[in-house]
Specification:
Order of helices and strands: EEHHHHHEEHEHEHEEHEEHEEHEHH
Strand content: 15-25%
Radius of gyration: 21 Å
Subcellular location: Endoplasmic reticulum membrane
EC number: 2.3.1.-
GO cellular component, one term: endoplasmic reticulum membrane
Distance between the termini: 38 Å
Number of strands: 13
Pathway: Lipid metabolism; Glycerolipid metabolism; triacylglycerol biosynthesis
Structural class: alpha/beta
Shape: globular
Strand order of the largest sheet: 2-1-3-12-9-4-7-5-6
Membrane topology: Multi-pass membrane protein
Number of domains: 1
Largest sheet: 9 strands, mixed
Length: 398
Amino acid sequence: MPVKVEKSEPLLITFRSHHNAYQEGSGAQIIRYPEVNTVWSKISQIVVGMVVIHYFLWFIPMFLSLYLLYSLGYPVVSFILLALYIPTYFNKDELKYGRPWEWIRQHSFWKYLQHYGQLEIVRECELDTDRKYIFGYHPHGILILSRISTYGGVFEKIFSGIEQRCLAATPMFLLPGSREICLWMGAVRADRSNAIRILQTDKLNLLLYPGGSDEIFLTDPSSTETTIIARKGFIRLALQQGVDLVPSFVFGEKHAYRKLDIPESIKSFFMKNLRTPLIIFWGRFFSWLPLSGKKIFLSVVHGKPIRVERMIPDPTDEEIDELYRQFYAEIRNLFNKYKGRYGYDENETLVIREAADKSSKGNVSNGVTNGHAKSLSKKAVLSSTSNGTNGVQNGFGH
């Protein structure tokens, strides 16, 4: 039986008129969403952005509403609402297939955020829907803004027929409000059994951020280095399940926020005494809303898939290392190929740090780790050279 070959024609979906990866006549298929510069549109983008980006705080108005109903003399209504909600909190949907709500996932209001972030998505080639895939995104960024590239029907335009779930860190499912938006958007908890369940389900594919929360603390808008964390857990998983890998790189996430330069002594105190990495950041209006401007825009590039020909239940270290090298060589290629097109300076370099061994054998996405300082090796084993060569030597409502 002949093997289907992915079409190599690039596809570009863009919400901006500048810094496009491809132009008309380049051979790429281009879908443009024209910029809307009316006052009402700009206000709508800010309002929608403010509400959605602060989903981690939705539990506050939820509890205040219950308290208000109770205080106004409607305790029965308050208790009924609470009784209806509690079973949904403990039903463990995050350990199954999520609770995707297609109406909200596909709703057009996501276009406000996509226009606000001046989003552009590139697909280097079409995927074979008869195969299964793990999409590995780097870098994570502070608030994983690249997730908006999968909402509002955009992912379905980019990868027609590819249904997916995204691995998200456990804390995202603990707070009311945050839990709901994550489940509605198709997220599940980041652990190995979940990932295997998704990949063994017909037609479901997996999205994950291998660098996980460690990459949050490496995000530095003032640096000419973009640093990511390389792990092998998802590489091992791809070999065991016989699924292809799609390298995906996110540009612009590091410029979305300002970050306070905290003295090392203070950061060490938090790590030593509270076991918590410390980061202080802010966006527009000193909120979590990303900064906006001609030089601040979000771009997501999906490279060509790396074929895994067969399932290997117990892959050797050599087999894991080989696929690992291929994946991160492609990540570097994407960075070097597109950085100039997306406004990065020529001297901008990619540094790939290898995670400690115990992280690579833990959670497949490694989105939750035991601490930033201990999860990284001390040297950048895959650091980029200044001329951009690819000499490789060796994760808003999730």
